[in-house]
Amino acid sequence: MVFLFYFLSAIMVISALLVVFSKSPINNVIYLIICFIAMAGHYILLNAQFLAVVHIIVYTGAIMVLFLFVVMLLNLNKAIIPQKSAAARVLAVVTGGIFFLVLLAATRQTFVINPRYAFTSEIGLVANVGKTLFHEFLLPFEISSVLFISAMVGAVMFGKRDHAAGED
Amino acid sequence: MDWTLYIYKTIFLFIILLVTLVVAMYSTYGERKVAAFMQDRRGPNRAGPFGLLQPLADGVKMFMKEEIIPLSANRVLFILGPAIAMTTALLTGVVIPWGGTLTIGGREFSMQIADLNIGILYVFAMVSIGVYGIMIGGWASNNKYALYGSIRAASQMISYELAMGMAIVALVVTTGSLSLHEIVQQQHGMHWNVFYQPLGFLLFLTCAFAETNRAPFDLPECETELVGGYHTEYSSMKLGFYLFAEYINMFISSAVIATVYFGGYNMPFIDQLGLSPNALTLLGTAFFFMKIFFFIFLFMWVRWTLPRFRYDQLMNLGWKGLIPLAMFNIVATGVYYYFFELT
Amino acid sequence: MQQLTNRSKVVSDKKMTFLEKIYLPAIVKGMAITLKHFFKKKSTISYPEQTRPFSEIYRGQHVLKRDDLGRERCTACGLCAVACPAEAITMISAERKPGEENLYREEKYAATYEINMLRCIFCGDCEEACPKEAIFLTDRIVASEYKREPFVYGKDRLVEPLDPTKRIDISKRQTESVLKFKENKRFAHNK
């Protein structure tokens, strides 16, 4: 198990780094997919099978497909990506560094993780996830679903607007 | 550690792999025969008796053909594409319960490799990863027809995965479990889910056709418009892998349909036969395979009957037809269970 | 306008009814049709083992006939070449030398006689044009080749064998109407 953990972690870290450093957009997306699959592996190690599979279905199987879709259609390659000036790069590093510091400061307080529930191997199974989701977190769950619906309606409206204008 | 179990699982894994490959191989033969028979022809009958060696001949032909990787293609991804398609197709067979339990020497061996408690979601996960094989292969070919094919494949699969998932949600409401093993056991005798979820079954079947890229939803490789679709640039065994993956997917889809809606290895009057448990298990497996073969035949039957959808019709059917129906099915099932069963 | 067939239908873009919209009855109907064909008698045959019967008047590979004494009937008049719509026939004539009377029936004969089988459309006009009843189309099939050259058939492959047992039978081609046509005065010398 420990070996598997380190193995998956290594894959995750390496592929995550490659997402950032790789030049070709298509490769970025593919490394991100590998990273996500390794993450699903971590979930399985925690016996959270439901989470792992949903992670694969939603993130790897749907969202990343759309990413890949867009990247393929845009046909980006190295030549098209604009080169930023040196000043912009320095600024980006500084902002990123400050953000990292803030994050560190924020998490330092809560560094001793005080889990709400004691970890058991059963916690990630589908029945438990369902019960937690639909009892304790029912309100956030429903609110987030409303958010999704509004996003969907918004997307449909964007798609429709041109069409309606053309008919007038 | 229990070594006998490990050894058993390994052997069983290899058997499943072998059976999957052989069935896929003979599906190609079956497809050609079915096509021929439906068109009043005879089909392959030269290689061996009744042409039974035709798949071998085809395989040898595929291996012997020249391997071409286009100069402008992305080499790594070009090879990765068929590899992903094949791998994900083969991975799905792991969770399907191929039979009950065998008792050998006082020990019980389940005829299922992994009884995941989210088995059916696992199938979905593998199907959704399978899209990458087509997408990456199509893009890496650096050919506009291949790209069109892969884009069609991706959008088609995402669209129909939704309706498929919703059909399964309604089913899960009736079964109360995501584990394929339990779903099968609940359908003991003739309590097949298809009688409780007829609409869900139709939706699932339609989506299964779309997910496996079979006619009438074979737009990704629609030869009249896109030359060869996503595998336009592929040759030799890489092309073979794509075609083979399609047949494996068909086999696995048939197995999933038979498992989820048609009682898996259950057969009617199984309790009245009075056979030993081992014999019953083997009989059940045989019956299961009969169901699978029927669905494979159904896949072919539909392919050689129905014409291909146009792309906008495909999207219309998926988003405006199947998804609302699936939603209605979920609500209807939920209402029924809330008022009549759970009280 | 007068209709050519009685199968034409009036096109209408009426709204589909609900049953038509869900397609299922139509799908079931279609699948029933294909299933019916599944059990039908096959309309193909296993070709090399089985062959279909030729038509009585099948027009295949040509033959240059000999007469009863084994002499070539062709006199290289060139009427067949003139009649040929595809211009597939060429020939070079030569004069019969003394002592060759057992080889050629007429005083003039074809030294070379070539039919390009790729050009030939097997219409049978050469046969009809021939005043000597020398050329006939038979029910033999022109063999396939890998190159173009072998399709130009010379006399070696056109003239029928001398051996009386190996003569090519063309009696089917000589139907009553043909015989009657050939009885015309112009062809009386053939008798």
Describe this entry's structure for a reader.
The complex is a heterotrimer of chains A (168), B (343) and C (191). Chain A is mainly alpha-helical and 168 residues long. Chain A is built from six helices and no strands. Chain A has a domain at 1-81: Up-down Bundle (Four Helix Bundle (Hemerythrin (Met), subunit A)). In chain A, 78% of the residues lie in helices and 0% in strands. The relative contact order of chain A is 0.07. The model of chain A has no long low-confidence stretch (mean pLDDT 80). Chain B is mainly α. Chain B has one domain (66-101, 116-341). Chain B has helices spanning 3-38, 54-64, 75-91, 119-140, 144-175, 180-186, 193-196, 198-211, 223-226, 236-261, 277-303, 311-341, and strands at 101-104, 107-110. The longest helix of chain B has 36 residues, at 3-38. Chain C has a domain at 62-190: Alpha-Beta Plaits, CATH 3.30.70.3270. Chain C has a three-stranded antiparallel beta sheet. Chain C is elongated and about 90 Å long. Chain C starts with 17 loop residues before the first helix and ends in a 9-residue tail after the last helix. The mean pLDDT of chain C is 83. At the A-B interface, helix 2 and helix 3 of A face helix 4 and helix 5 of B.
Brief characterization of the structure:
The complex is a heterotrimer of chains A (168), B (343) and C (191). Chain A is mainly alpha-helical.
Radius of gyration of chain B: 21 Å
The termini of chain A sit apart by 65 Å
The number of helical segments of chain B is: 12
How is the main sheet of chain B built?
A: 2 strands, antiparallel
Number of domains of chain B: 1
Mean pLDDT of chain B: 83
Shape of chain A: globular
**What order do the SSEs of chain B take from the amino end to the carboxyl end, as H and E?**
HHHEEHHHHHHHHH
Q: What percentage of the residues of chain B does DSSP assign to strands (E)?
A: under 5%
Quick one: how many beta strands of chain A?
0
**Strand order across the largest sheet of chain B:** 1-2
CATH architecture of the domain at 1-81 in chain A: Up-down Bundle
Mean pLDDT of chain A: 80
Major sheet attributes of chain A: none
- Class by helix and strand content of chain B? mainly alpha
Judged by helices, strands and strand pairing, the structural class of chain A is mainly alpha
The portion of residues assigned to helices of chain A is over 70%
* Unreliable sequence segments of chain B: none
